[in-house]
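Worked problem 6 (solution included).
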Amino acid sequence: DLEAILSVADGERGGVTVRGVPVVWDRAAGMLEVADIKAPLPTTGDQLSLRVLVDRGSVEVFAAAGLVAVVKGIRPEAGDRTLQVIGGRTKVGAITVHQLRPAWSN
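Solution. The predicted structure is:
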């Protein structure tokens, strides 16, 4: 569970990569991109709130306080726990990461 506030310069693209899945805000196009899925993202200003939930089989992205939601099926590498900021002038104003416990018992 990741919550972040992103700032992306006007006309640019930026975001985060979570477990190898790019989550990109294209300000010029007004789009949110999660891997190969694109969704319209009407925003004002240069900040975007994101919540990203990742488990063994999917990534769920909620943007602009839940205004836009994208779900993508994934198969991440078992050891891939990476989180990267992408985009030349992308800034992260705040970030909170929580490791969630499994819903299923082993």
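Discussion: The chain has a mean pLDDT of 89.
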